[in-house]
Task: inverse folding
């Protein structure tokens, strides 16, 4: 499954109402560590059909960044049944990202 672009318009449908856990990657185009995590997140999206993977550009979606209390990026959050069940800040290797799930 490909990575979804999450916006305030599709957030409820794609994340809150999802029947699968959702891995959200909060990022910005100018962020170096975010560019390191991005390909790993895309790889996970391709490999795992049991989860949804979404990217949230904090510059374009400040309301979502605020809702999740994003202070530093990259920030990864796992949402299950509409609630955040796990999150991590900073670049992480693939194994640590998978462990969040």
Result:
């Amino acid at each position: 499954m490909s990575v979804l672009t999450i916006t305030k318009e599709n957030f409820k449908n794609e994340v809150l109402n999802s029947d699968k856990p959702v891995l959200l990657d909060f990022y910005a185009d100018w962020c170096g560590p975010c560019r390191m995590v991005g390909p790993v997140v895309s790889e996970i999206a391709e490999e795992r059909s049991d989860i949804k993977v979404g990217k949230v550009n904090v510059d374009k979606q400040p309301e979502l960044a605020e809702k999740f209390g994003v202070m530093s990026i990259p920030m990864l959050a796992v949402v299950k049944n509409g609630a955040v069940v796990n999150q991590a800040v900073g670049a992480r290797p693939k194994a640590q990202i998978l462990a969040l799930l």
In short: The longest strand covers residues 83-89. Strands lie at 4-5, 22-27, 52-57, 75-80, 83-89.
